[in-house]
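Example 3.2
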Amino acid sequence: MITYSGPPAPDPGPRTEWVLSEREVIRLLDLAPKQVRQLKRLDLLRQDRKQVRFRELVGLRVAKGLLDAEISVRKIRRLLHDLERLLPESTSPLAELRVVVQGKEILVESGTALLEPGTGQAVLAFDVGELVRTAKASASRGLIRPLVPRASEADFWFEQAGKLEDDAATCEEAVTAYERALEIEPHYAAAWNNLGLLRHRMAQYDGATECYRRAFEEDPTLAQAVYNLGVIAEDIGDSLSAVFYYRKALEIDPDYADAHFNLASALEREGRRDEAKVHWREYVRLDPHSHWATIANRHLKEIEKR
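Structure, written as tokens:
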């Protein structure tokens, strides 16, 4: 028997909550294309919107575990209906209850009660903390930190924003701090980029795009700003523009590992596997020991099989 634990996800605060794009969720959970289709059939990956909140990410991780255990979509759908009755106020019950797989049967534990009778549990730990760290690492891609801090008032507000932006509860304060920095120094490219990244996390796509473009105008060597334009193009479904921007970022910085990763992913979705293979390999060369390298190597193996 295997247990997929779904302890309560951390509360990001009442005012602002970061969102993850569908692209980030697929990458974070290493979802196969078939699993993406199955999760959409279950309405866990919503067809009508592209943003996923962290609590929903935890539930998706549990659902992926069930799919990996070869539990059918029909049984998972029935489980979801049962959980809706058990926790009618919850927006993501899979993130709050312990789901137990016994053979092909699914039991749900809440306190001492089981949704269906069962005994003899062996628990496989589900590390939500690691999921938090990985999600934050993904959200921080494209962020800029100057190698040598400057000493102006604008830099003071830039540094204040940097202290606030990692916590969704203080995200709006970080936005205000970056805006203060830009009021003082309108040509501050790094502040434009990082303000765009915060707005991007908050699903304010038009505002984020404007910030990234302004950052690149102020500093045409800023590969991160062009990379971020590619990310936002992917998030709104414009794959051709995403490929253009990722290639542009690599023209500026050929060793930009994240741009290789995202370009490979975008090319593979377009069916351009031979081109994708080059960039998967470059990513593994540049960042061989990361979580993302494991995903890149899996894509390389699948391309080689084809």
